[in-house]
Amino acid sequence: xxxxxxxxxxxxxxxxxxxxxxxxxxxxxxxxxxxxxxxxxxxxxxxxxxxxxxxxxxxxxxxxxxxxxxxxxxxxxxxxxxxxxxxxxxxxxxxxxxxxxxxxxxxxxxxxxxxxxxxxxxxxxxxxxxxxxxxxxxxxxxxxxxxxxxxxxxxxxxxxxxxxxxxxxxxxxxxxxxxxxxxxxxxxxxxxxxxxxxxxxxxxxxxxxxxxxxxxxxxxxxxxxxxxxxxxxxxxxxxxxxxxxxxxxxxxxxxxxxxxxxxxxxxxxxxxxxxxxxxxxxxxxxxxxxxx
Length: 292
Hints:
single chain, alpha/beta, Rossmann fold, 8-stranded mixed sheet, 10 helices, 42% helix, 13% strand
């Protein structure tokens, strides 16, 4: 239970959270609502988003919970989402890029981008860049990117970012998470002196229903997941580091870092390659239409 002295820690601060209709995202939204934040839930499904909003309002006692819907696999919908956020909220203090997918089978988006790379990496890249003006204008502000520790198994394959030569859900997801961390560090460098921090985190192994909703999940994999699931973290525990990075005074001046369990840790050696990070940024600008 949040102590009463902390109930207004985030009062007046606007927090946008993607993928906030369930799991870690919803738990993050609830945790921040409990300490007074104005919450903007971003989800794909209007009904689920409204249900999450109503539950968060009820459980937190905070009525300042709003809903916006967007399919983050679509460049056009991300651009419209950014416009809607800026229209409704001239000030933006926290952006948490939490949404992610992990389909078993390879697929491409409406824009022709491999789906995992599009949603788990390019969507945060594009949305963050589109919202930089209100973030900078509302400083001090924070960007929090939810990554994962399996990025350590990946390398950025510039000749195969779309996983056309080699695809597995783990390979594609690990590369996307590494790209997200490298983006976070490069963003932090570019925002230096603007009082907008950018950090990323590994939430831990969290129990969610998402894998079970994939129609391509094999019966064996479904059984295995259900066997190990009780040993995973609850969404509430998985959300703790996101909430910490979004709200804690302890990290208000810390930027360009990777966190696990609220502690700074080193990410993979490749994640610190500034040359690759700049190249990745340039490629990402072209893929999202931000370049020229």
